[in-house]
Design brief:
Helix content: 25-40%
Order of helices and strands: HEHEEEHEEHHEHHE
Shape: globular
Structural class: alpha/beta
Distance between the termini: 41 Å
Strand content: 15-25%
Amino acid sequence: MPNDSTEQTRLSIAYQTYLPILDGQLTSGLIPRTSKRILDIGTGTGDWAIAVAERFPNAEVIATDITSVFQPRNGPPNIFFELDDARDEWTYADPFDFIHIRELSGAIEDWDKIYAEVSRHLKIGGSVEVVDHSRIHLTQEPENSYTSIYIGALESAAEKAGRPLNLEHLKKPMFERAELSVTKTKSFDIPLGPWSPDPRKKVAGKMALIAALEGLEAMSLRLLTKHMGWTLESVRELCEQVKEEVMRPEAKAFVKVQFVTARKLGL
């Protein structure tokens, strides 16, 4: 993904998309008020981490990412931004009450390794919430749609890159292998655009559409040129065709968002 102001804005809009469907909450499950240590993996612009630090002023919040480009210079006194790659061994000295991972599908080669580290660094009784969304779906999808061509090429490229772009990592056995017990799952369909009659989804849909359209090229440009042999021009042309298709009122485009909360049980 690019590290520029456009991507920074897109990430902030994507964060805002979740708030209406969660009724203003930051997670699908509850973070205990007694939490002392909270970890946000792949924090991006840090919006979620800053918000949770403000709501839990007595907790130490650590927010990590592989790039510091997006991380803000200022924040609550209890938040600490760190440059770190979650795919490497975690070296935190003290365990966490809550770990948050959102929108990292396509960025991780080995989710078993990630969940093993999560389990190792959670307190007994502590929880992790992992959130990701599906491909773009069209309620009214023409045969051989540009959207299906885009998704097919992107998923193939991600497989070749060794970082699958799917929701397999949200399945229960993945957590159980790391001795994490799934306590809650929740799914939402988020419209791309304001076409839903649900007021919350209408608000979320406006922001989700912007985030999705701005992310088409950001998600695909490097993957398709490096792993599928596409030219820059062909990638950009397909992205424009997908945009036109998604924005048609009759398409009623949407993505499926899934939340999984899992707990580390005692012996």
